[in-house]
User: Fold these one by one.
Assistant:
Number 1:
Amino acid sequence: MKLVYFITFAFIITNCNCKAQQNIYLVAKDSNESFSPEDTFRVKESENEEDFVENEYLIKDLEPIRKNFKRLNSIAKWDSVIVKDIWLSIEGGEAKYYYSKKKLRKIIARYYGETYQNLSEYYLLNNKLSFVFEKNYKYNRPLYYDSLVMKENGDNEVWDLGKSEITETRSYFKNGKLIHQISSQDCGAPFAAEYLLEEQKTIKEEFKELLSALIKKEEDN
């Protein structure tokens, strides 16, 4: 019988005086068993969370976006959830599409790699992209970097979850336009308009790819 332990880690990230608490589920497997990034740990998606307020900037425009985020991530039972394997990274990943009252309300996408894990949450409001919450975990060493590999490479560190470099990005959309973005590495200072336009393009392209993957799955079925 395979030995599997489930351990919950909770730690506080402090960067530029911006604080965010993250929950991570680590699955430790028997050392004789091969593993994939999905087996190791899954970043916990938002659940019963409220968006924090960095400052008074655009607070009236952001209020309905934040309320919608809280409402959707508090839903315990969805009408349907469609799961799709995605290959937007070398190690692949998974996308989940959440429906309520026959409408797509949010998408949760996970991307895995030997040196990172990324969780992207897309929330829709009035059938349009409203809020995107991205959590990126960059590991200090690759997942397979145990004490033996460390010695073979003349290194002094093994893979350590607690040493991950963690970045959170929150993107707010109004009428299809990215109006504000907050990064844990930036302390919430407003970004330049040109930068937001580039970010808007990137996010919308990724969102479009996820929608295309959903359409293809429905056609296959």
Number 2:
Amino acid sequence: MLRTFDLVVIGTGAAASTVAYECRKAGWEVAIIDSRPFGGTCALRGCDPKKVLVGVAEVVDSSKRLLSRGVTSEASIDWSALMRFKRTFTEPVPENREKGFLSAGIPACHGRAHFVDQISVAVGEDILSAKHVVIATGARPATLNIPGEEHVTFSDEFLELDKLPQRIVFIGGGYISFEFAHVASQAGAKATIVHRGRRPLAGFDPDLVDQLAQATRELGIDLRLNAAVLGIEKTSSHLSVTVSAGNKQQTIEADMVVHGAGRVPEIQDLGLEKAGVKSSDKGVVVNEYLQSVSNPQVYAAGDAAASGGPPLTPVAGLEAAS
């Protein structure tokens, strides 16, 4: 069925929701689409649930630091209880977000969208045609291109673990790996971070990164720099991770391997070529107004846009509001 709108928004995260609500307030007919539960990465699979875990880990860390200073025993993490607590924040989000769209007069469509021409998007059996389309689909884990990649656990899966494995290897030295490794360590797991570069957390202040690296090692986390994961093999009892450091290869036994090696725009199956939308490995190529340089009826915001901004939720919201 063909349906027409002033604006179609692909995604329901921070950027997508901001665009949809602002344009609807201006009197536009707006539709919004998502193939995943409504709410986006930050609310469901990233920032917000991670903050719950980090907050509890900080309490445990503080209790250790205050022993003999008035605190008589260390706190500890009940991982299953922590997951149940975390879900009290995340589980209501999709239904509440969809109700919010509908109450604002924004039809909410479920399914993976793809362009069929310059101004039309297909989702399920419907074709949504619009004067403008905004791509705000967020990001996904980058492909590692290593043998055994199918055994890797993604960050959203880590945030849903009912039981924490005892030995975890984190691939990549970004903030996802560091945050999760510290949480896992405070919960009693043996964590290892493997980073191919000389310095982790590229783009952050080097002096602060050095302090963090020292604190990470003091916590008991095995931080390996100038090391690359060559492959992962699954055995009957564990995962065997082959790591190259210099001219040597080593094997790390783990119960889980977590992807923390960067994210890329989730635009690969949107059919951008049918809309004449130019893209790169950094996202939809846009001008200073976040407008596609090759199709002026299409815009992109947040992680889906090659705008040069950091991949942060406040940035996505500001881009959408502009």
Number 3:
Amino acid sequence: MKSKALWLVLIAQFCSAFADNALLFAAIMMVRNAAFPEWSIPVLQSFFTGAYILLAPFVGAIADAYPKGRVLMAANGLKLAGGLAMFLGLNPFIAYGLVGAGAAAYSPAKYGILPEILAAENLVKGNGWLEASTIVAILLGAVVGGYLSDINLMLAFGIVVVLYVVAALINFFIPRLPPVHPTTLKPWPLLQRFAVDVKVLWRDTAARLSLIGTSAFWGAGATLRFMLVAWVPVALAISGNAMPSLLNAIVALGVVIGAAIAGYKVRLHDSPRVLPAGCLIGIAIIAFSFSGHLYMAIAACAVIGALGGFFVVPLNALLQERGHESVGSGSAIAVQNLLENSAMFLLTGAWTVLGMSGVPVVKAAAGFGLVFGLFMTWLWLSNRRLRLAA
């Protein structure tokens, strides 16, 4: 865990994730200032995740075909272009889609590099550190982005641009590791290979479990962000971006705690044992939806985050290990990104439809928590039956 490459990855990831999350709240304010309807705010996420879905067949192969540090640097360049576009006042939806393209390229490289710089016995711990770095960045980025977007939108965009530049410079100093799974980069062969990768991972029981669990979790997490934006003015009677961003930060802080516990308490072969935490997340979301006091909401968000961190870190490590042994860790993460972002696209889309339909936000949030909890209960019981049958 003293690897220089690991620390460079962690620092660059912190800067990049901080900028991503500050940019989201600045983009939300930009949409509001442009007098777009309130229900269009989650559409920002649809442009972001749409880029992930479209690029999923290609970015994993790119991450495995080139030194991953250079891939990270190029991906931050795309994010920088999106941040600059917003700074210049261009369409926020298109600009945020460009940031999504950079994030799509960044993800398989940042996760895929871990099996190359860490021993297998340190992989869960390394994931814990990476998730902790990401979540601390989410915490601070959400707070800073929410605060600055309320008082000075251009300053918020300026900080985002600077952080993307810093992240790209740090990426440059990551050691040039040789490609693990070099392959052709022609579009049609890449699509064929991606289809094969999906089949290989889906037929692997452990990889399939990880793909389903993490996709559901991140789909719910993306929806929760916009749920908070809609819920805070109704339940707490507080306007502006600052309070939703603070509650997002509380969730992030909880994830740091949960990820740290998982990193030190859960071994790779025990990863499926975290599934009951997913069931509890649904219960916690229901409790949150009916909390009418700020301190109750803070406590509920902290619990949701802690359960989420404990749940997702071991499942991520499990997929990386199975992918590293089969299709390549970068390609495995690209498949994961396709499914996760498809889940985000569908769930945030469903939330948008609920908003357009006029469903009360408290009831919509409680219903969302119920459906998520039932799905996680099904996943847990199904996996348990498979393990007993084996």
